[in-house]
Amino acid sequence: MLEQLIHPLQVEEMRLLLRLRETRRRRRQTEPGNGLTLGERVSDAVASTVGSWRFIIVQSIILAIWMLLNVTAYVEHWDPYPFILLNLVLSFQAAYTAPVIMMSQNRQAEIDRRSAQHDYDINIKSELEIELLHQKLDMLREKEFADLITIIRGLEGQLAQTQKALLLLSNK
């Protein structure tokens, strides 16, 4: 009867629990962020710099000064109005920063994917651990129930003996 009430974990579930326990031990030993290559560090630095308000403001000021100096007659015009040199510089900047930003985003996407997989594994592990706890609680309840039945049967036996003794005493 006890075996019918308790559903043991499947072999795959036990393997997953063991694998997750090993993963947790390994994660404690390795620190995140270590082992980044120079290119990864550079792409992260470029992406964080280019993606900031400070960069946008500084670049806007530089562009405004460039255009102002080339439009006014007070200085020599090194890049006159359609600003072809400025266009070349900005194209060059875009051509090099876009792939670097993409590298940083790809690396961040991989980190996010690993984090999501880790969260999923933790959720599965938690679910399995809760199932184990439910099984243990069911086993304890069944054991207590069996112990109570044994105690009740013992008390019934004692009650029957007491009733017989009282019946014998009342017949005398």
TrEMBL record:
Alphabetic keyword roster: Coiled coil, Membrane, Transmembrane, Transmembrane helix
Stretches that traverse the bilayer: 55-75, 81-104
This protein's record includes keyword Iron: no
Coiled coil ranges: 123-172
PANTHER family referenced in this protein's UniProt entry, alphabetically: INTEGRAL MEMBRANE PROTEIN-RELATED, MEMBRANE PROTEIN
Name assigned to this protein: DUF1003 domain-containing protein
Organism, scientific name: Aliidongia dinghuensis
